[in-house]
Write a structure and sequence with these properties.
The protein is α+β, with helices and mostly antiparallel strands and 211 residues long. It has a domain of 125 residues: Nuclear Transport Factor 2, Chain: A. It has a 6-stranded mixed β-sheet. Strand 5 and strand 6 form a beta hairpin. It is elongated, with a radius of gyration of 64 Å.
Length: 211
């Protein structure tokens, strides 16, 4: 019985081997071709040109300007005096305005150029009203419309005496002592008129007149 069973097993072995043939291994794939070595990038002309150029020099630093000096403190100019030559010019303007008013017949308008008491020829006036009334009458008799003012010379009173001699006594009597006095000599159609000036709180004013 055992021999029969063994015989059956041996006879069935080839059939089993034919039914399940051995599986063949799949063919190996051919190795992938190596990628060609990439060519090294060609340097651009711009880059090579930039490298060949010399580097630009560094800009020279601009010097910082020094701060402007502070303006000097202004010193007030000294008040002009007779020595500077400006006082005669001021008196000349005052005398010119006074004579123009008198020649125009505006005696009342000339009062602003006068100081009181005022000496007109040999008469003294302490107030403007009486002076205006008297002067208007005298100017009418002199026909001031025919008189022309040519020039006015201004000089200190002491120089007036040296140059023209002593003025009439009526003027010398009214000269204040210790006070700077100027004389304005007006040329009225060839005739001299002398106006004396002294300094007041309102500037130079005429205090005497004679022609």
């Amino acid at each position: 019985m055992r021999c029969w069973s063994l015989l059956l097993l041996l006879s069935a072995a080839p059939a089993l081997s034919q039914e399940n043939p051995p599986t063949e291994a799949p063919p190996a794939e051919a190795p992938a071709a190596e990628a060609p070595a990439s060519e090294s990038p060609r340097p651009s002309r711009r880059r090579s040109r930039t490298r060949s150029e010399a580097p630009a020099p560094a800009p020279t630093p601009t010097p910082t300007p020094a701060p402007a000096p502070a303006p000097a403190e202004e010193v007030p100019e000294p008040r002009p005096t007779s020595r500077t030559g400006s006082e005669p010019e001021r008196i000349r303007k005052e005398a010119h305005a006074l004579v123009d008013s008198l020649l125009a017949g505006d005696v009342r308008g000339s009062v602003g150029y006068l100081a009181f008491p005022f000496q007109l020829e040999e008469r003294r006036f302490d107030a403007p009203e009486s002076l205006v009334a008297t002067w208007v009458k005298e100017l009418r008799n002199k026909r001031t419309d025919l008189v022309t003012l040519y020039d006015i010379e201004v000089l200190p009173y002491a120089e007036l005496e040296r140059k023209y001699g002593k003025p009439p006594a009526r003027l010398g009597a009214v000269i204040p002592r210790g006070t700077e006095v100027y004389a304005a000599v007006a040329n009225l159609s060839g005739h001299a008129a002398v106006i004396l000036y002294r300094q007041t709180d309102d500037g130079w004013k005429a205090f005497a007149y004679t022609d």
